[in-house]
Amino acid sequence: MSFAASASASSFEGEGTYAEDKDVAKSIKQVAKYNKSYDDDQITNHIILFPFNFDDCHWTLCKIKMLIKENDIEATIKIYNSLLDLGGPTPSLYFVDLIRSHLQSNFVGKRI
């Protein structure tokens, strides 16, 4: 399990959409780098937790659960949002796509 520094994103799609996830990307890269370095003791299941901020006004918890295979990855991105049932902000697909691209660039199609 890894804990990353906070990430943030706009809940709005389109113009003005932003996402800040440098530390989350760094955590994903660390797992990939470890697996490349240690053939006999590779990480196959891993969870990354980090606080996630919407629009600079609401904090949630985000979890990335990774099941790592030889040259592929299966990942679930879950955002625990206490205000979702009350009409609170929802994550933009831009942020989810950004995390997905980090996972794919570090694991998919690469010999781990």
Helical/strand content category? alpha/beta
User: How many helical elements?
Assistant: 2
Oligomeric form of this entry?
single chain
Main beta sheet strand tally, sense and closure: 6 strands, mixed
Instruction: Write down the overall mean pLDDT.
Output: 79
List the uncertain runs: none
What is the element string, with H for helices and E for strands?
EEEHEEEH
What is the total tally of β strands? 6
Termini separation comes to 19 Å
The gyration radius over C-alpha positions equals: 15 Å
**Number of separate structural domains:** 1
Into which percent range does the helicity of residues fall? Answer: 25-40%
Q: How would you sum up the global shape?
A: elongated
Helix and strand topology:
Elements lengths: L1 E2 L3 E3 L9 E2 L1 H16 L7 E10 L3 E11 L4 E8 L12 H15 L5
Parallel strand pairs: 1-4, 2-4
Antiparallel strand pairs: 2-3, 4-5, 5-6
Could you list some keywords that capture this structure?
single chain, 32% strand, 112 residues, 2 helices, alpha/beta
Structure report:
The chain has 112 residues and is of the alpha/beta class. It has one domain. It is built from two helices and six strands. Strands 1, 2, 3, 4, 5 and 6 form a six-stranded mixed β-sheet that branches. Helix 1 packs parallel to helix 2. It is elongated, with a radius of gyration of 15 Å. The chain starts with a strand and ends in a 5-residue tail after the last helix.
